[in-house]
Amino acid sequence: VEAFNACVASIRAGAKGKKFTGALDHCKRSSRKNYASLLKYVRGLHDHHSKLLVIRLDLEYKKQFCGSLKRSDPVSYAEAKQHRKSFFKHLKKELAAYCLAGYVWKLEYGKIKSYHYHVLLLLNGQHVREDITIARLLGEHWKNIITNGAGLYFNCNAKKFMYKNRGIGMISHDDNAMRKNLEEAVLNYLVKADYYIKFSVKGGRAFGKGALPKKSPSR
Length: 219
What we know:
Layout: H1 2-16, H2 18-48, E1 51-61, H3 77-95, E2 100-110, E3 114-124, H4 131-146, E4 151-155, E5 169-172, H5 176-190, H6 197-201, E6 207-209
Antiparallel strand pairs: 1-3, 1-4, 1-5, 2-3, 2-6
């Protein structure tokens, strides 16, 4: 009991120390910086398009390919990174020519899920609809082709009407309520501070987004 109490006291003391609190503050500052950048990006896309079809996908791996089950060959960061690159290469090949307006991705790490991605896609709503179908097709490509059967996905758009503050689906430029939900609920979730990923990727990227178009905003 005395040993455990001493351990707890040591952890509490460390958690109050400048080094630990400084590391937490750094994570929070990074989250705030990403949110400001992402907010500017999405608002810029709305200025260029009268409607955006917003899709959210969670791209994961089956449990047997996660390190939590003590496999000798769980999915590594290098593999997850290559899978992400292959997924976006396919995405741009299939959609960029006529409807892909923008995208955002966030890599996270958990002891149970291991590496997994939260992906936000913003498509030109003047050219496409059927967000649930598009999300399903992309998810199946991740599951069966990109990861060769090791992947899983969750199609958030298939459950979009269950979200209290729904910010996915078709969003018009003048739909202030939906745009507020997108900015305050969806974008905030994408950039929330992750205290584990920095220890896992060791200098690799855990967040990315597209670039705003160079042409002038639409009227």
